[in-house]
Amino acid sequence: AAPLPTLIGAVLLLLVATTFASNHIAARLAFDNGASVATAVAARSITTVVVVAVLLLASGASLRPPAGTFGRALVVGLLLTVQSYCLYAAVARLPVALALLTFNVFPILLALVAWIVTGQRPGRRTLLAMPVILLGLALALDVVGAGARSIEGSRASGLAFALAASTTFAVALFLTTRWLGTMDGRLRAVLTMATVAVVVLA
User: Which of 23, 26, 100, 133 to pair with 15, CA 20 to 30 A apart?
Assistant: First the structure.
């Protein structure tokens, strides 16, 4: 297929970003009204599995994963279970924007994981972007101001959950590109999100 025009691609990215943010704002509203983190993760995962499975069936795509990838998809699914639970736990404890800002250090962590495992040094742009991202995060978290006072328990645990989510997501992305690159992205979503749903429900 021909590549999309740049403007359409940018609009689609903005739509995806808005949907992603809305998902977590909705989760926070659910938490404020009594839902548990596990309930929110299970609801999101089950909905994803159902919708994407319907799309797969409607398109006539194969539901059989490539040889040797099923077990690997389950491993990635377990990592995404940890990531999903930790991210929603962070959203339950922090302002949504702060939780997502902290979580979004995962590109830095992904570059570091790839560097450690494969020896592939991050590109110059990535190396230049890393300190800028960390500086922005430090300003948002008021690290300097917090140094003179203790961070309250719920905020500290929220930050820890967000960083744990970021770390596990970076590892999951790294393994996905190495293990599941030949698998249809829709099938990959069904398998990994089904794993998340089963584990959280259990």
Answer: 133
In the three-class reduction of DSSP (H, G, I as helix; E, B as strand; rest coil), residue 37 is classed as helix
Q: Quick one: DSSP state of residue 105?
A: T
What does the block give as tokens for 114? 């790839």
Question: Is the separation of the CB atoms in 133 and 66 below 8 Å?
Answer: no
Out of 34-43, 141-150, 163-172, 190-199, pick the least confident: 141-150
Distance, first Cα to last Cα, the chain: 42
How distant, in Å, are the alpha carbons of 5, 26, 130 from that of 20?
23, 10, 23
Q: How far is CA 138 from CA 23, 127, 142, 159, 168, in A?
A: 25, 17, 6, 12, 21
| The pLDDT of residue 152 is above 70 | no
Q: What is the DSSP letter of 183?
A: S
